[in-house]
Specification:
It is a single chain. This protein is an alpha+beta fold and 477 residues long. The chain has 5 domains: 89 residues, Uridine Diphospho-n-acetylenolpyruvylglucosamine Reductase, domain 2 (2-Layer Sandwich), CATH 3.30.43; 119 residues, Uridine Diphospho-n-acetylenolpyruvylglucosamine Reductase, domain 3; 114 residues, 2-Layer Sandwich (Alpha-Beta Plaits), CATH 3.30.70.2190; 87 residues, 2-Layer Sandwich (Alpha-Beta Plaits); 39 residues. It is 36% helix and 20% strand. The chain is built from 18 helices and 19 strands. The strands form 4 sheets. Strands 12, 13, 14, 15, 16, 17, 18 and 19 form an 8-stranded antiparallel beta sheet that branches. It has a 5-stranded antiparallel beta sheet with strand order 5-6-10-8-9. α1 runs antiparallel to α3, α10 crosses α13 and α14 packs antiparallel against α16. The longest helix is centred in the middle third of the chain and has 16 residues. Keywords: FAD, Flavoprotein.
Length: 477
């Protein structure tokens, strides 16, 4: 749309500040910033602001605050819950960090890297790797997701079981608050007991408290040896038992442990040409295990073979393939990482990013599957995810040949059915994707009372005019 909703004085000030490359108003230029990756939300904006520095970002935010213009922070725009999409009013501006792409430093002594918010996770990983170090965070969208958005949503990913979520990796932050002031928390300290941990308040806040511009991230020594295997198993119970077998032998060696249902795997093998099944025949379920060590020795291979050998003897695993090269390792991981894309190609889907205690995973999957199949006959229940840390993406794909719109009209009924089973097992209705605008209606029943009220008080204290990413996390009433 045009910039007609911006006051002329604000329009001119922003254009002068950011220049033509940093101030987009033409509908052709802004369209991609107004739609989410899943194509569930189609908003409008008065303009897209693309500051190149923290200073320019702060000045732009201050100008918008002066004119009471809502602001929607946006990174790589990979949100699964509409957390970075403006509403349909066209009143808001999108503030994109895509021009803030500098890797400022890598510190070998402290094992940290300092990067701007617009650096993609893949670029940060590659920069660390080139320095013989590793940024352990890994997610499927790492080629487009950026550091600011990853921290704002507290992304988890494949290596959480060993290294934790984004929250555990963030030592320091710099952020622009809703009034345009800059909160500089760029410290490399492991110990800093001086009042409230404000950086942790911003991590996971989904852009509702401020816009992250720079971060100090913890690194690890680059692994010298890795062993990766794809295993065929009977069900989630068997996958969990296999995880326990590896953990019993050497919990520190487990870098990732992923679960994939047979239904979800079949979609990948069918719809993604580069991802054939590397096993002799399909299975009801699969486990992907990766071991890692900074040492160069054969112990990981021995551990992998010993545990899988015993699991095969006991019938816990029915087939397995071990990566014999880095290319084969990447091919195995590509199969896991293409599950979301395959489900997108299969039609409309309802995402349930949930977590439950590890012991409850098999019963949760069984009960939730029955509940959803009862609600929508023919539905394709396609769970996959990070079984090692209890995070299952319990995704539901429309029946073959069904009308996508009609299926999505049942999303709340399906999400609620799954959520109630999650509640039964003491889990969470959002494990790593956040609340965004998709799940705001769940907040009162899950986080109501003093918890939600405390969140509102924090929001009101930092953003009394509700200008920063309005409509996200908090229910409208």
């Amino acid at each position: 749309m045009s910039d007609a909703s911006l006051p002329p004085a604000l329009h001119d000030a922003l254009l002068t500040l950011l220049g033509p490359a940093g101030f987009l108003t033409d509908a052709t230029d802004t369209a991609s910033f107004c739609t989410d990756w899943r194509l569930l939300y189609h908003g409008r904006c008065a303009a897209v602001l693309r500051p190149a520095t923290t200073e320019d970002c702060a000045k732009a935010v201050a100008l918008c605050a002066q004119y009471d213009v809502p602001m929607v922070p946006q990174g790589g725009n990979t949100s699964m819950v509409g957390g970075a999409t403006p509403d349909e009013s066209g009143k808001a501006v999108v503030i994109s960090t895509t021009r803030m792409t500098r890797i400022l430093s890598i510190d070998h002594a402290d094992l940290t890297m300092t990067v701007e918010a617009g650096v993609t996770l893949k670029a940060a990983q590659d920069a660390a790797w080139a320095e013989d170090l590793m940024l352990p965070l890994s997610i499927s969208s790492e080629g487009s997701a950026d550091i600011g958005g990853i921290l704002a949503t507290n992304a988890g990913g494949n290596n959480t079981v060993r290294y934790g979520n984004a929250r555990e990796l963030a030592l320091g932050l710099e952020a622009v608050l809703p009034d345009g002031s800059v909160l500089n928390l760029l410290r490399k300290l492991r110990k800093d007991n001086t009042g409230y941990a404000l950086r942790q308040l911003l991590v996971g806040s989904e852009g509702t408290l401020g816009l992250i511009t720079t971060a100090v991230l913890q690194l690890q020594p680059r692994p010298r040896s890795r062993e990766t295997a794809l295993c065929a198993v009977a069900d989630a119970k068997s996958a969990l038992a296999l995880f326990a077998a590896f953990r019993k032998q050497d919990p520190a060696a487990i870098q990732a442990f992923e679960y994939m249902s047979g239904t979800s795997m079949a979609l990948v093998n069918t719809l993604i040409e580069s991802c054939p099944l590397p096993l002799s025949e399909p299975a009801p379920a699969y486990a992907l295990v990766e071991l890692g060590s900074p040492r160069e020795d054969e112990s990981l291979r021995t551990l992998m073979e010993d545990v899988l050998g015993q699991a095969l003897e006991e019938g816990l695993v029915t087939d397995a393939v071990l990566a014999e090269s880095e290319t084969q390792r990447q091919n195995i991981w590509m199969i896991r990482e293409e599950h979301a894309e395959a489900q997108k190609r299969a039609g409309a889907s309802v995402k349930n990013d949930v977590s439950v205690p590890l012991a409850a995973i098999p019963d949760f999957i069984e009960e939730a599957t029955k509940a959803c199949e009862s609600l929508v006959p023919g539905i394709r229940v396609a769970p996959f995810g990070h079984i090692g840390d209890g995070n299952i993406h319990f995704n539901l794909v429309q029946p073959e040949g069904a009308d996508p719109a009609a299926f999505l009209a049942q999303d709340h009924a399906l999400m609620d059915a799954v959520a109630e089973i999650v509640r039964k097992f003491g889990g969470s209705f959002s494990a790593e994707h956040g609340v965004g605008q998709l799940k705001t209606y769940m907040m009162p029943s899950w986080r109501g009372g003093a918890e939600l009220e405390t969140m509102r008080k924090i929001k009101n204290a930092l953003d009394p005019k509700n200008l920063m990413n309005p409509g996200k996390i908090f229910p409208s009433h």
